[in-house]
Amino acid sequence: MNEKKWQLLPTCGKEAENLDIILACDGASSVGQIGNEVAVKLTREEEGARMCCITAIGAGSKAHTDIARKARRLIVINGCQMECASKILRNADIEPTYEITIAKEGVDKLPTLDFDAQEVERIAAKIVKDLKNLSAK
Fold first, then answer.
1. Which whole-number Å values give the CA distances from 73 to 10, 31, 47, 76, 93, in the listed order?
2. Domains detected in the chain
3. b/e per residue, 72-95, with b = 16+ CB within 10 A?
4. Taking Cα atoms as reference points, which of 40, 67, 61 lies closest to residue 123?
5. What pLDDT is attached to residue 14?
6. pLDDT reading at 1 higher than 60
7. Are the C-beta atoms of residues 85 and 55 closer than 8 Å to each other?
8. DSSP conformation letters of 29-88
9. What is the pLDDT of residues 12-67, one digit of tens each?
10. What Rg value do the Cα atoms of the chain yield, rounded?
């Protein structure tokens, strides 16, 4: 890939206060892969949205925990009912601004890395709409 075409992301450690930080499941199932793809889509398409590493928070990275604490809004995308991404945050005493669980949105969890791109579009649109409604309150 030609580097000149890469979309460079804001440095979340320096700009977290101005960003909606997205922490997403990317588990080894259909809903985990949808979660990751939704996070990528929102990062690429929504002004001020930036995915960050939930795994680093789970590993105790102070830098990543600080990013989550400083975020303008903290968006958590869980894949299945285990809600691991939310649990990682709560174990670090951090509450998300918004959280969604894909398996509770009418998407079956399947033991595959494949997923329906229409589900990615639908979940991403729901998150955008829900966040606009939160902002309006």
1. 15, 23, 13, 10, 15
2. 16-129 (3.40.50)
3. ebbbbbbbbeebbbbebbeeeebe
4. 40
5. 84
6. no
7. no
8. SHHHHHHHHHHHHHHHHSTTEEE--HHHHHTT-HHHHHHHHH-SEEEEEE-STT-HHHHH
9. 888 899 999 999 999 999 999 999 999 999 999 999 999 999 999 999 999 999 99
10. 14
Amino acid at 44: R
Q: Which of 62, 57, 60, 72 is nearest to 25 (CA)?
A: 57
100-115 pLDDT, tens digit per residue, is 999 999 999 999 999 9
